[in-house]
Amino acid sequence: MTNPPPTTGLDEYTEQIAASVGRDAAELVTSVEHDAAGEALAALHAGYTQAAAVGR
Amino acid sequence: MSATLFDLGMRLRAAHEQRPVARTHHSLALPPNGALAVMTAREAGELTVSASDGEREASHAGEDALEALDEFEVSVDGAHRTLVVADHGTLRDLLSLALRAPERPCAPVIAWWDQRADHPGSGAVHMCIAAARARFALGTSPEAERDLGTWLRWFGIDDAGPSALLQLARATAVGPVLPGLLDCAGADSRSWDAFAKRLRKGQDWRRPDSRTDAALGLATRSDAAELFDSLLLGDPLAAVAASFAGSVVCGTVTSATKGRFTVRADRPVSRLRPGARVAGWEGEACDVQDSETRLRDGEIEAAAMGTDAALDIAVRDAVFRPSPLGVGDRVSLRARPVDPFQQQRARRNLSQRYRTAGNWLAGRGTPTPRRGNVPLDVVLAAADEA
Amino acid sequence: MTAEAPPQANPPRVPAAHVKNPTLARALFAMMAGDRAVVVDSPPGAGKTHLITNLAQQLHDRAGMTVAIAAQTRAQALDVANRTAETGAAVSLLVKHKSVRPPGLSPDVTLVSQGRLRPGLGIVVATTARWLWTPTHTFRTDALLVDEAYQLTYADLGGLGTLADQVTLVGDPGQIDPVVTGETRRWDGWAAGPHQPSPSALLASDSDGHVTSLRLPKTWRLGPATTDLIRPLYSIPFESARPPSHVEDSTGPLPEYCVQHVTVTGGQADPAIALAAATRVRARLASGSVHTLDGARPLTARDVAVVAPHVEQTTMLAAALADQPDVFVGTINQAQGLERHAVVAVHPLAGYATVSPFATDLGRTCVALSRHRSHLTVVADDRTSAVLARTLRDHPEDTATRTQQHLLDTLTNQGARP
User: Taking a C-beta distance cutoff of 8 angstroms, is the pair C146, C37 a contact?
Assistant: First the structure.
């Protein structure tokens, strides 16, 4: 794939969600790959790891 | 909130991998074989309809816009065909054209597609954007996922016309079909046959719904929505997502006696209330298909939050196959699956009640007038000022 | 000359509930006279169940009519059966299987199973769901009374129509619409659509003027300030007839309602919301007393309810109040029909940075604001006023948002913070 698909609006959406759980957006993005403690980040991590990539 | 965060995790994964990620293991739609994709566009007040079956394309505008469908011999004669559109907007455009040209062979078919589109799980109309959103997550905001162009870019589909919709529909329908979905296709065939039969008897497809049509129409739509949601919980990935929303509850068995057990839930959110009939399986949410021990039936006796902020759920009248779970076993609970045959019986029952002679509340006839005597004390009290 | 029969020593006492209740009397008149349908609109706490149970009793005992009562949930059916039994009428509760007697059912209520249902039983109470499965050819009554009729769809009312020729629908038009899972866009804008609440749809279909429309004019639960607060949510007029009742704490009498503002940063599931509400509940339990015409007594857990729009919020509240199991904790949807002296309600827009139709739904807000007899504390997000104002700037035509703004202004300005 020559051009990666556009991540339209993802940054703003992540900030919105981060603000609504009282966290920093950057903290959310970096923690997503780790099995962090706490209910909020556990859900985020589960969504990240459960998602299976689909080839085109 | 947990469900929203789970969803965000999927989006971040999609963005990192630069490809769509699956929300479900199964396809939630049948492959669009023999389907007809249609796009509408409005320019200078004139509607253009473009249609494609994957091999050839037709496009017409203005008064003759529906010629695009007639070219593909869309009519009530013969078998029904899946319509592939981007969203409801296209259907609305087609319906408005059909009402202006009701004599065209495709006009009643458009009306039938419009009805079936209200039934989740139906294979009669494939709404590309909604179907793609249900099947995949993209590395974008939810808002961006409402745009067709976003999906075409993420799937690398370069075409612009209706054949692009067919390609997207095919990409959305990869994988094993969700168990139970094929039966929904059966409902489409029965609906088509009944629709064609009524037309052959001379019924005008533009006729507004009678009370009976409306009541049964609401019943078929509600049943389809409830059945589809129920079938979805049989998908491992969907079950995991549901465990963050409380419609699947995972936990550990803390006590077990004959026909009764208690569960300490992993998370304190549960949509399973006392009195609800439940089913389940041994293991985690993702084990829904593979687990060999199943809870066939049970009823939530109690669901109480302890002072340690943990949720304890008690289930009675529990029927396990092949054998009951014990203390320490992992279990996942869900609302008892919807039975489509029970739904059918309920609809037949409602239909019979609506057709019962004398049922004036259902719009059938007027009641036999009954004049009774009213005691004087009632007459006087009724005349009093409030 | 014919001898006259001697007067009876003890003539049967004629029930008199209708003498002081013109609405009940008019409903009775209409049904006894043979009118096809009666709709009775009832604001919260106006005596809906009192009307239905006494109507059933008199139609049966005085007019010799057989009566079916349809309730919308099992809990409601139980309550109606019990209260009908209290009038002295012979009443049965229809259940699937007779083997299990529902806990809390009065010993004066007979249980009857589907298979044993026969004409002439008198007054039979069942849920709508159970009535819809009663064979149409084996059981009919003279009258069908529907409780909480605004929670019943017009589609289901048509299904009940095989039971009787005459029907009375009683319900609260200001509350939450019937729950419908199917797509209804086909019938958008049709007042008599299948998804519409049955009383309004029946009236909309009534081109011949055969439906008698009545209203209960007084609320016996809500005080004057609360009545003024929720009156804009109703098209029917009503007044407060509640006897004096208030809650006091260590500072003195508390107003009928007040607002507790809380700063919310974590969305609807921000623990600050549940914490504020739970703290308020504990404060009331610690030093609260109920004052009525019967005297004063301490406020107990059974006098208190805390309600919130979202399951996640009630989860946190239940955890925070786990040591007080007698305090009702539930969603606003679950609290329909509930009454308590003191209520703490989480404002439907708490945690919202933008409005949504769920959050601004007026029926849900109405239920939240009308559960309390003596005192209500609304826990509100201190941003909500600005959120509503911003929405109205962009969408001045949004009537639900405008009404929400008006309600919040009234709550804040009229309800003094203790």
Answer: no
